[in-house]
Amino acid sequence: MNKTILIGLIAGITGLAIGYKVPKDKNVGYVMISGRITNPEQAEKYFARVNDVVVKGCGAKTLTVDYKTDIREGYDGPFTVLAQFPSKKAAQDCYEGDYQNIIPLRKDAIDMNFRIVEKKIQFFNQ
Description:
The chain is α+β, with helices and mostly antiparallel strands. The protein has helices spanning about 5-20, 40-60, 90-95, 105, and strands at about 25-35, 60-65, 80-85, 110-120. It has a four-stranded antiparallel β-sheet, covered by helices on one side.
């Protein structure tokens, strides 16, 4: 087999394999929370509702929950959450929707920063 054809076949198969692994929705949304739990008993009630409203209701995927975050710089507390949504808009809609009903559970339980960000996957050829 010609060396050029062989290299072309390898490149084509590699391209297909990489293309298969690339997420179809390149612009996923994330919720980043950092703070301090001030009332553990009340926080547990909030966490139970978050699972129903955010994970089950809004389709979020919890990537990490860390109660003892290693803080090297800054002023946030040792509590950190990172959750992924299908898009930034999905995270915003969730926050503005049913999540509003559980905010009162959180108010006297957790002092936190709540951020919604978007991850845009960039490729070298874009």
